[in-house]
Amino acid sequence: MAKATKKQALGRGLSALLKETAEVTSASDENADKVVGSIIEIDLDLIEVNPFQPRTYFDEEALKELSGSIKELGVIQPITVRKLAEDKFQLVSGERRFRASKLIGNKTVPAYIRIANDQEMLEMALVENIQRKNLDPIEVALSYQRLIDEIKLTQEELSVRVGKKRSTVTNYLRLLKLDPIIQTGMRDAFISMGHGRALINIENLSDQIKIYEKILRDKLSVRQTEDLVRHIKSGTLAKAEKNKKTVPSAITNSLKDLNDFFDAKINVSVNDKGKGKISIPFNSLADFERIKKLLQ
Known about the structure:
There is one protein chain. The chain has 15 helices and seven strands. The protein has helices at residues 14-18, 32-35, 60-73, 95-103, 118-132, 137-151, 155-162, 166-174, 180-187, 193-199, 205-218, 222-234, 236-243, 249-262, 285-295; strands at residues 39-43, 47-48, 79-85, 88-93, 108-114, 267-270, 276-279. Strand 6 (267-270) and strand 7 (276-279) form a beta hairpin. Helix 6 (137-151) crosses helix 8 and helix 7 packs across helix 8 (166-174).
């Protein structure tokens, strides 16, 4: 059974409200004004997780840290639930606090009771996650798309709901046009949203993958990726590749020694007459001074 605190709601005992047989599932319910705003201690076993939760992964180490905090200070901010039936509740938000409380063996958790139907549950869960959690760009994009598809919002309406500019919402949604492999790479933090936004401009998915692999292989920055995509779109890269002369094997075989000596990726170009150029990149003034000393 749900355990009520000492406070009473609008002159009626919370236990009486919770035992009413009529199910409370919509904000239009006649008892909404009597239940909304109540905070009670609820048995964890009476709460089921939110099926609309957009986050599917919870960092175990972060949960342990939160559990330690709850063990010392308690749950400072109550979770939010909706009442499904007598002695049955469903999470609206606060799943990390819910999981962390279970992790340390707590039997109850303070909960704020909301009234919501399934559509309202989905919207609250998605918006709460977007605003409060450190979601990766693809999780945000998927949450935006669900709000558009399932709640029938326009991008303009969505931007108001989540408190973001329309252009920001559009930029996230465009990420879903990327090849799934690239989306996974973004979720795993192999590349940033900036890389992804640059890659969107390449329509062919196989070409996207080739550039994605080059980003990982050569550790390209966002600016370098943007330049690469710009060259590909304009055709200048293809022309440069066509006109590029083969570097003699004697030079390419020595490149590893040069790379190791300077601790940098050395670039070499050779023309028809055998003349060429060696480029030594540096990352900062201190790095430049380091390379200068090596040359001296």
